[in-house]
Amino acid sequence: MGISLTRAAQWTMVSSSTAKLVSTPMNESLLKEILHFVEHFRSQYPQEAEHVFEEPLQWSTTLVASDFKTDYDISDSDVQSHERDSEGHPLLQLSPPTVYVRSFSQLSKLLHLAHDKKLAEVRACLEGKFESNLHPKQSNHQHSSITHRLNLFVLLVTLYSHPIMLNPKAVKNEVEILQVFCGGGDKGLLKSLRYTSDFEFSNGYRAPLWRQVQGDICYLVIEPCDTETLHITCSTAGIFLNGGIKQEGEENGYEQTSDTYEDLVTLLKSRSPHFAEKINQVEDLIVCLIKKSEAGLLYFRKTSAGALPGEPFSESSTESEEEEEQPYRHPETNTDLPSEYWQIQKLVKYLKDGDQIVTVHTLCAMMDFNLMQESCQMAIQDTGALKVLLNLLDTDEHKCEIGSLKILRTISHNSQIRRVIVDMRGVQSIVKILDSPVKELKALAAETIANVAKFRRARRNVRLYGGINKLVSLLDCLPNLASLTPSQEEDIEVACCGALALWSCSRSTKNKKAIRKAGGIPLLGRLLKSPLQKMLIPVVGTLQECASEESYRTDIQTLGMIKDLVRNLSSDNDELQMHCASAIFKCAEDKQTRDLVRKYKGLQPLVSLLHKADNKQLLAAATGAIWKCSISQENVTKFQEYKALEILVSLLTDQPEEVLVNVVGALGEFAQIPANKAAIREFGGIKPLVKLLTSPNQALLVNVTKAVGACATNKDNMVIIDQLDGIRLVWSLLKNPSADVQSSAAWALCACTENAEDAGETARSLIGGFQLIVKLLSSTNNEVLASICAAICKIAKDEENLAILTDFGVVPSLAKLTNTTDDRLRHHLADAIAQCCMWGSNRASFGEAGAVAPLVRYLKSKEGSVQRSTAMALYQLSRNPNNCITMHEKEVVQPLIHMMGSDDEELQEAAAGCVRSIRLLYMANRNAELFTFRN
Amino acid sequence: MSKISAMNKRTTQTLAENISKQVEHFSKKEVECLIREFNVLMAEQNNSGRAVHGLDRGKFISTLHSIFGLTDDRMTGRVFRTFDKDNDSVVSMKEWIDGLSVFLRGTLDEKIKYCFTVYDLNGDNAISREEMLHMLKGRLIRQPNEEDPDEGIKDLVEIILKKMDYDHDGKLSFEDFEKAVKDENLLLEAFGTCLPDFRVICNEKYCVKSPFYPLSVNVDF
């Protein structure tokens, strides 16, 4: 399967409007394969099968209403499925002869109903019209979308159907597909993937003959983007890591060094977090592709493999949502183009040959076409009109410039045209027009930039040609005068367009800086006072985009924009509310901002936005703002008055991840107040929280573990968490590749262990749990280390657990960390050491492992918590004479005596105890000496 | 001598006061400037002893050319005819100032009316196919392989009619023209440049020559 088969699918054009699959043995077998795949898709991949397509698959079916049975509403000849999407549209709809299907699950059900007509249905489905509303009468589009659809199926088949018994062909296909996604820096799935041997035996094997007998097919060397190089053996039994076969013929290195995986993707997923993340995106993309036929597979390849490897752009986080550059697409033939195409072509001729007056007429005539329609946009591009339009911008004939820009601003909605405009150095010309004294021209130019600057090369061009400064100067107007002269009104219009353009441009980090440097922030702040929504949306949009920069957040706060943002939270426009909320979300990291939001009474409107549960983007922004605001306890108290907690808990289920992350984050903050811990339980929030511990989303996991940890400090909550197997779930998150998740889970583990009834036993029941903890002590992340030390301290309170930990070598692992200078880690490390001293000969072992001397140095730390923990640890260690000697050598007595004078009784006691041990040893020593002397 | 100039000044003032009452957009002070300007133009004009009360066609067109940058012969002739409301082949002071008020300060409505009059060659209150053809002729570079030199223009006229002829009577009535221009301002000077470029008004010597000349201008763009 795979690419080779796609190539093999043979299409023919029967008439101008439909494409047919030729009846060849190859195609028949392909159809059967697809049929088989689709039929079993539902049972094999239930989750994916439920995914609802944006655009339905539609085709003329031979099925009639009577073929459908239960699960369908049948009225006359029409049929609708009981299954519906979130908006209540049926997932399958039949209005003879056309059938619309919107999920794989429905497709496979339908094929099931079709019995012996299955094959015909699959064929019809592939040949069926695709996005017919977009490409009327355009056979070449039709054709490409059919091949494209076919590709999709084939791809899905390859990605999802893995043979259990591997064969050379399957391996080869998988390697071929993965190779497509190699390279391209961080955007690629892998850095590189190659066979160890270029020679392929006639049976498809590449392993040497003596290994083929063992079942080895070939060996691969894969460089993932984030971990070390993997040496992989593909054998008929499965895929596993080997001892490192670099070249054919080496005798050693063939032994298996990992588990066996059933395919390459699974193995890579488990080894490379980067790969796992990217492959998920690829799978998502395939689903996207079902709704987006444009540019087909190439688009897919470009986005996943990275269109621009190694380009030195610095972009903000929002970048991921944006479009990637797409390859050029040209019609293959000129037959059957719509009449608009020819009409436009004729106009272009006049455009090229006419004088100014004729040009204006031609431009006006062009504007009368539906320029949003792709065929018209293509006509403009193909006939060279785009070049003429851009040339007109340099003519100084403002009528022509206006006409040209009016067309450009519309057709630049098409991503391909945007790219051509940039390629033809159009940005330069458009930016120049921003200086024009004609206000209409300025506004049009800014509006066009707003459309063109949707991808980073365009944005970069705008900046390089000085566009940012010019755009910022457009913002200079008086937005909130009671009465306006016509000229002032024009200024406002210009400012609106300027803000729109800046909004698009602000997606690039360097542009954010440029806007700031050009003095854009105070101007945006002034426009924020405008009463006009069309002004406010781009202005707030820009601000929230830029608020990812620290400097902007400070300015937004100090220039008094929080007040206006809060005011617009109560606007009646969802989009504006969303941008305001997300600006607050980003700014409220800062305490003063949080206080200002409260001061300007922004908390109540935020809570009331939670009721707009249908608008997920708005909900995500509002919950985000609530989360960040609730970091201040005073805000939590206020939120309580508005019953925010109850609503938040209700949002724990059936929400998209971006909402969940924020909701859970907020609950984590709310739960810092003891009363709220109980309240969360009463509203039934514990169960969904624990359930979210199994989510694959790392950002969500960080928040969930934090919230669960906060809730766990309440005994009653802990009982529920325990019942739901929460401890095991939290513990297993220590295996997560993300350091943030690891540390957050470890902190939660502390709370759980401390408060659970029989935590010790639960911990022991988890196989491999202790090993995992000790293994994490070799992490390079200080936060992970600190949290694990804290967890060890709690777990080791149970003597039996401490014994097991000791067996797994916790003592040398802790001792290795003692050289750290991080105070937070020192604090928890010292605690852990103190606790681990309680077992067997651990005190001596710490001494032998060289942990004592570095600990003495901790006493110099200014941090009270470090001093205290260290004193305790030293006290414990001092009960071993050898440790006392080391301590004494490192001059521990002086600082300890100093600490005895501390106000902290525990510290006093520990310090004194330690000094006492040293003293006792000294005395015993002297007595012994005296004794010897006497004799 | 000083007596005469003083008297002249007084007449100018009275005249200015009268005209500024009849003409829109200009203050008395501004009209005074325009009168002075008109007199300068009159003095430049070679009257060869005849007593004339206005600018003749030649002087008018060369003034349009030099001051307002209007160079299209087909149009300047029509502009003269439009300025010359009483059809006496000269543009009087009153007609001059009247015309300039549209030229420099005209509202969109006034400009639409003015342009329509310019383009309505035979004065029948409609712009016919033939009139358009006449005005657009030669504006398209002829391709060597084309047989009929005007084929492109004829085709263009059809395109224009399709867009602007709302009542489908095969010609543009004033209402058609007005509606089309209001819809798309770019069509104001649809058949030839007959209004000064605003940049000329703002920057050119016309302002330099008369320092009191009002700089602020209504521009529809």
UniProtKB/TrEMBL annotation, chain A:
Xref: SMART domains: ARM
Domain of life: Eukaryota
Pfam families in the cross-refs: Arm (PF00514)
Region listing for Disordered, in residue ranges: 309-336
Gene3D superfamilies, alphabetized: Leucine-rich Repeat Variant
PROSITE patterns in the cross-refs: ARM_REPEAT (PS50176)
ARM repeats, residue ranges: 643-685, 850-883
Protein name: Outer dynein arm docking complex subunit 2
Lineage of producing organism: Eukaryota, Metazoa, Chordata, Craniata, Vertebrata
UniProtKB/TrEMBL annotation, chain B:
GO molecular function: calcium ion binding
Gene3D superfamilies, A to Z: EF-hand (1.10.238.10)
Keyword Repeat applies: yes
InterPro entries per UniProt: EF-hand-dom_pair, EF_Hand_1_Ca_BS, EF_hand_dom, Recoverin
Residue ranges occupied by any EF-hand domain in the UniProt entry: 71-106, 107-142, 152-187
Keywords: Calcium, Metal-binding, Repeat
Keyword Ligase appears in the UniProt entry: no
Protein name: Calaxin
Species in which this protein is naturally found: Oreochromis niloticus (Nile tilapia)
